[in-house]
Amino acid sequence: MNKKMYCPNCQKAYLPTDQVVLNRVNTVLHMDCPDMQNQPYIDEGTFEEIVRKYSFFDNKLLN
Q1: Which of 16, 31, 33, 42 makes an SS bond possible with 48, Cβ 3.0 to 4.6 Å?
Q2: Superkingdom, according to UniProt (predicted)?
Q3: CA angle at residue 4 from 17 to 27, to 5 degrees?
């Protein structure tokens, strides 16, 4: 079963190559979407890079 993760602002599913940011409360956002929570960013990169880098994400999000 494929899992998908969606941007909380634009409601679009992330693609592995989407440029994203990870904020302090571990919310992933598209780089060009505003952060309504106004949290500092702790990392940025492609969605695939972020999912692989942080163990709290399920790698099934990349299938």
Answers
A1: 16
A2: Bacteria
A3: 75
Assess if residue 54 is contained within a domain: yes
Residues of the chain with pLDDT below 70 are 1-2
Any domain includes 2: no
pLDDT (0 to 100) of residue 30: 96
Residue 13, domain member (yes or no): no
- Rounded distance between C-alpha atoms, residue 16 and residue 46, angstroms: 7
Neighbours of 41 (CB within 10 A): 13
State the total domains in the chain. Answer: 1
31: its two tokens:
């780089």
Range list of H helices, the chain: 47-53
Whether the model pTM is above 0.85:
yes
Round to whole Å and give the CA distance between 48 and 9: 19
